């Protein structure tokens, strides 16, 4: 009986630990895929002013219509109409859009590699 209680207690503890994570499997998946922090990415999106051109779910005041809305970007096939949607390509685009496509209106904002990973992690939560 004691071994059974120990096993049941261990199973409950493991289930609780598995559920802890970030509290949101989309955030965990996005962080894993992009190797960044969705929470930090959220703040960086506000810091870089991405919402002045894009409408971005979850970003206060990001309701602009100058550039494409970013809702559902995690499920899109292409980024900027020129790159397949992969974590490496999204980071590349965020860091220097004109280098990828000289005809883009999106400016180079001087986003660092780590900031691009974090921003990507947030964007990959937008399914």
Brief summary:
The chain is mostly helical. The protein is built from six helices and two strands; from the N terminus they run αααββααα.
Question: Which descriptors would you attach to this protein?
Answer:
two-stranded antiparallel sheet, 3% strand, 127 residues, disordered N terminus, mainly alpha, Cytochrome Bc1 Complex, Chain D, domain 2, 50% helix, 6 helices
| Shape summary | globular
The beta-strand count equals: 2
Overall residue-averaged pLDDT value: 85
- Could you tell me the CATH topology label: Cytochrome Bc1 Complex, Chain D, domain 2
Report the span from N to C terminus: 47 Å
Major sheet size, sense and barrel closure: 2 strands, antiparallel
Q: What is the SS-derived class? A: mainly alpha
Fraction of residues in H or I helices: 40-55%
- Unreliable stretches (pLDDT < 50, length at least 5) are 1-23
What is the helix/strand order? HHHEEHHH
Write the CATH architecture name.
Answer: Orthogonal Bundle
Continuous helix count: 6
Strand order of the largest sheet: 1-2
Characterize the structure shown.
The protein has six helices and two strands; from the N terminus they run H-H-H-E-E-H-H-H. With 127 residues, it is mainly alpha-helical. Strand 1 and strand 2 form a beta hairpin.
């Amino acid at each position: 009986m004691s071994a059974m209680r120990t096993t049941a207690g261990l199973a409950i503890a493991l289930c609780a630990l598995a559920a802890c994570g970030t509290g949101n499997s989309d955030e965990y998946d996005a962080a894993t895929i992009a190797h960044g922090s969705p929470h930090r990415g959220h703040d960086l999106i506000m810091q870089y002013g991405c919402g002045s051109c894009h409408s971005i779910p979850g970003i206060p005041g990001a309701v602009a219509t100058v550039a494409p809305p970013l809702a559902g970007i995690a499920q899109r096939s292409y980024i900027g109409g020129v790159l397949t949607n992969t974590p490496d390509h999204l980071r590349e685009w965020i860091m220097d859009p004109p280098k990828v496509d000289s005809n883009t209106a999106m400016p180079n904002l001087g986003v660092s590699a780590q900031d691009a990973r974090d921003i990507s992690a947030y964007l990959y939560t937008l399914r």
